[in-house]
What we know:
Blueprint: H1 2-21, H2 32-42, H3 44-68, H4 73-100, H5 103-125, H6 129-150, H7 152-155, H8 164-194, H9 199-202, H10 215-234, H11 243-273, H12 278-293, H13 296-311, H14 317-323
Amino acid sequence: MKIVGEELHKLWPHLLVSVLLAQLGTLAMLSLIPLQVVYYQKGLKPYLMVLILWSLITFPLLYVVQSMQGLVFESILLQGSYLFWLVGGLLVFTLVHLHTGRHLYGLMAGSATSVVFALLLVAILSSLPNFVEWWAIQLKTINELLTTSLGSSWKSFEIQYPGGYQALVIDLLENSYGQVYFLILLFVVVLARRGSSDPSKARIKLKDFFLPENFLWLFLGSWLPTLALILLERNGIIISLGWGRGILAYLANVTLLLFCLQGLGILFSFLEKKMVNPILLMFIRVVLVVLFLGGGTATITSIIFSLLGVSENWIKYRMILRSQG
């Protein structure tokens, strides 16, 4: 008990900051950063200790605070579950990283776990009539706001779901949220490593980002069937793969993102090698941010940099740059 008390005495600032950040609604994901800093600084046991204490404090506190704000139970449940499945994904990431030493495998396993937790929770909550009714109202309101603010540009991308709004959310969870959770966990891990006192864990540079060669097969194995299904659907042939479609979409989106990061790594390696003027380098970064945040430009830019990253499996750009001295 004395050892546990000493550990908690050292770790209470991380716990306090994390509990407070968990009350920030959609920004509650920031609360995961201090927790992950504990893992990098202290190891697995203190990390698990803080994680358990954080859960015992955060979820009851979240309920009390949001009840005082007049939020309905369904809203509190949804926000609490959002944190729950993110924490579950982060825990899986940590365990996979601990046993393999591979951040990428951990991030993929963690984000996939978050999606599975989310889908299970959706299935459970969908059996509650009040929740489904509240859910439909929220989604209809969002839909009306988007239609009003974006007009025809939103309507052109709107998809009609025979299963209603529940089918829409399940489709989003299967096809889009995996990529979102991957980005959230990546964001948390990068900032946590930078917050670590160990310099070797703090230095993560995009120019050094490189995927193992076997990721090429994962990329091709997910994108070729996905493109084939899209072409078949455009010709009126619908093939139902059930959960398999969601798994394909998850792998396709995540591998596209990873190869996009590798493509950006090639670009910044080139810019560093050529010793580009800092002002010009800042301008390039701003342009890239604008391109990635744009509607149509984001898709095109992602594809271009992903293909650049994929091509490094055959053309070793950064090896060529280093050999030039």
